[in-house]
Amino acid sequence: MDVIDALILGIVQGLAEYLPISSSGHLEIFREILGLNLEGSEALEFDVVLHVATVLSTIVVLWREFVPLCKSFFTIARDDNFFYVCKILLSCIPVAIVGLCFKDFVEQFFGSGLGIVGICLLVTAALLAFAYYFRNPAREAKEGVKGHDITWLDAFIIGCSQAVAVLPGLSRSGTTIATGLLLGDKRDKIAQFSFFMVIIPILGEALLGLKDILQGEGVSGTVGTLPLVVGFFASFIVGCMACKWMISIVKKGKLIWFALYCVAMGVLCILW
Fold first, then answer.
1. 150 and 180 in contact (C-beta within 8 Å)?
2. I want to staple 175 with a disulfide (CB 3.0 to 4.6 A). Which of 22, 128, 135, 165 is the partner?
3. Around Cβ 91, how many Cβ atoms within 10 Å?
């Protein structure tokens, strides 16, 4: 992998992690386009760096909301912020079960061609379209529908949708946000919750990946320091912009455009 490849993949990860178009699916697509065949520790090393970069971009963009949550949780203050973090932890249980018990099964779908990616992108498009027409902004304004705060049951259901979205091409942000909208949650609340709930799984996956790298599992070798640095900063900078943009998009209810994009890209992947 050279610096240009790392830059492109970093930009793709930063955009697709927040926009409802699937980061894992688009990384598969661009690796195919660029002719990259990273295996073992090389792929693991690069993926860990990109995912940590997007986590940091979430924390930076939502810093004002993130700090009070940490203070309340670690001081065990029984306020709304404390219970909000508890809901985030509850939402992480399903994806943790999938990661611990079905990791090998899920990994079979990665690197197996773009057919699976294309099908999952079409599923993402269907979810986004259904959520858009179910929670149409014009109809909501006319009927006075404002949505409600995320409940404990909502948090668990959204967590289940995140667990399903580990497949390449099935957008994590798109699936969780669409699920929240279908449950009747407030638009601004569900976007923020969706971005916060991914922090713990990504950091957990990064730690497991780091353990495997240190233990020398997989093919020996390294991506190289410069490509890792370029990929990290590209993913972080673009991720900060995409995070802000996505929150604004969800508030305005413009997810239908991403559904159309996922349909087009899904068909192209299947034909490819």
1. yes
2. 165
3. 29
- Which structure tokens are listed for 115? 């057919």
User: Considering the chain, what percentage of its residues have pLDDT values greater than 90?
Assistant: 44
Query: Buried b / exposed e across 227-259, counting CB within 10 Å, b at 16+?
Result: bbebbbebbbebbbebbeebbebbeebebeebb
* Rg of the chain, C-alpha, whole Å: 18
